[in-house]
């Protein structure tokens, strides 16, 4: 039976929703009538849910505006006869599919509109940021994965996609909706609030840092360029049998490899680098890294210069000209040493009738030995800035299989 006056015992829960909505409005998470909030009743044994109404200014709600429903959406209290939030069907799906969920926040923070246009696939992923620890069950060196779904005209249409994400991504307490916002939840109202704050922070940091070159998206994961957590990462190497290499090259997906349906490529362990004679050091990505000075002394590099390619900024013909040159199979009569300062890509090295695709990213200082057939391609970020280190005067003389057929068998 529906009550006309707010029951005393529910007032603290109702007041909390009013307070949360006011603070979310002040944060810009629910301006222009967007956004919403729901919690489970804190009364012992109750499965009721409380939901903010639609049509009331988010920062001006009073306890009598908050609607209480039972677990099958029958209205228990609706003192001001208001319409429940349009998100109710989505909230219900989240409660249903995430049994520990006790509170849900729907934010229209503009950062998520921007983020879902930087991450155009089905997931936002980031790693090595301290705030990842604020998301239950995650460490700061783990990859946080939050699913992204496309927006629809109505909330009802979104509900089934949100439900599917909650089931498929049990570790994620959130679903992003492209060009729209986020649904984020937790086992209590405060846990949901912490999740919402951490994810908003991570999205803001990833966007700003990617835009200013302080973070890089590698294999779909946004990572800060600095060293923490990354120093133990080894370059990833894939083996690509020559028969699988198409005339245009290996090609690559977002993950760096060309996955021929039904024939996923094999990850190699790093011992392959030894066979290829490829060596590497992991640095910070900074030009003034002390370790770089040590390497210069250790390996007697007396000269360096910077090579920079940016498919988003350079003239198309110029960028493609460089890419064609670097992607043509070639070798040099000296070691090729490259220290990646931003962006990333893949060195493909040919050895015993196969290609080995070695991923390089910020901080990698890689040495491709003299006479080893290789080529380079940027990753999907289409940019790389690298320091080239030389023992003698800087030079870039590539010997290609076309120019030097008699050398073709060297180092194979
Ligand atoms: C990662 S630096 C750009 C590629 C390059 O300098 C080279 O020599 C490719 O073989």
From TrEMBL:
Q: Name one Pfam family in it.
A: Aldolase_II
The UniProt keyword set, sorted, is: Amino-acid biosynthesis, Lyase, Metal-binding, Methionine biosynthesis, Zinc
Its GO biological process terms?
A: L-methionine salvage from methylthioadenosine
Query: Keyword Lipid metabolism, does the record have it?
Result: no
What InterPro entries does this protein map onto? Answer: Aldolase_II/adducin_N, Aldolase_II/adducin_N_sf, ARD, MethylthioRu-1-P_deHdtase_MtnB, RmlC-like_jellyroll, RmlC_Cupin_sf
One GO term in the molecular function aspect is: metal ion binding
Name of the protein: Class II aldolase/adducin N-terminal domain-containing protein
Stretches assigned to the Class II aldolase/adducin N-terminal domain: 15-207
Annotated GO CC locations: cytoplasm
């Amino acid at each position: 039976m529906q009550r006309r006056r707010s029951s005393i015992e529910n007032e603290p829960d109702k007041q909390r929703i009013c307070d949360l909505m006011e603070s979310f409005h002040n944060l810009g998470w629910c301006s222009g009538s967007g956004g919403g909030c729901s919690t489970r009743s804190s009364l012992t044994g109750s499965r009721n849910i409380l939901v903010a109404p639609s049509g009331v200014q988010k920062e001006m709600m009073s306890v009598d505006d908050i609607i209480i429903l039972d677990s099958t959406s029958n209205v228990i209290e609706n003192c001001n006869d208001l319409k429940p939030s349009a998100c109710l069907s989505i909230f219900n799906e989240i409660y249903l599919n995430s049994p520990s969920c006790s509170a849900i926040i729907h934010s229209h923070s503009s950062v998520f509109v921007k983020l879902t246009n930087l991450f155009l696939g089905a997931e936002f992923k980031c790693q090595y940021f301290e705030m990842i620890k604020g998301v239950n069950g995650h460490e700061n060196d783990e990859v946080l994965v939050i699913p992204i779904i496309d927006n629809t005209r109505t909330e009802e249409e979104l509900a089934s996609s949100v439900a599917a994400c909650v089931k498929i991504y049990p570790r994620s307490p959130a679903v992003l909706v492209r060009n729209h916002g986020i649904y984020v939840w937790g086992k209590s109202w405060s846990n949901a609030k912490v999740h919402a704050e951490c994810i908003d922070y991570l999205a803001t940091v990833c966007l700003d840092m990617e835009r200013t070159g302080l973070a890089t998206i590698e294999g779909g994961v946004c990572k800060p360029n600095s060293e923490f957590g990354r120093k133990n990462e080894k370059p990833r190497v894939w083996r690509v049998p020559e028969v699988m290499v198409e005339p245009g090259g290996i090609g690559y997906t977002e993950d760096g490899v060309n996955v021929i349906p039904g024939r996923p490529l094999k990850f190699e362990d790093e011992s392959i680098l030894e066979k290829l004679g490829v060596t590497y050091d992991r640095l910070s990505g900074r030009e003034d890294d002390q370790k770089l000075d040590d390497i210069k002394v250790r390996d007697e590099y007396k000269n360096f210069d910077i090579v920079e390619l940016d498919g988003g900024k350079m003239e198309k013909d110029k960028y493609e000209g460089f890419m064609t040159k670097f992607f043509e199979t070639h070798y040099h009569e000296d070691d090729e040493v490259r220290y990646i300062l931003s962006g990333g890509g893949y060195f493909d090295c040919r050895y015993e009738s196969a290609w080995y695709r070695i991923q390089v990213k910020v901080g990698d200082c890689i040495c491709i030995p003299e006479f080893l057939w290789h080529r380079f391609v940027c990753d999907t970020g289409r940019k790389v800035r690298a320091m080239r280190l030389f023992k003698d005067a800087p030079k870039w003389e590539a010997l290609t299989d076309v120019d030097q057929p008699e050398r073709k068998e060297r180092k194979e």
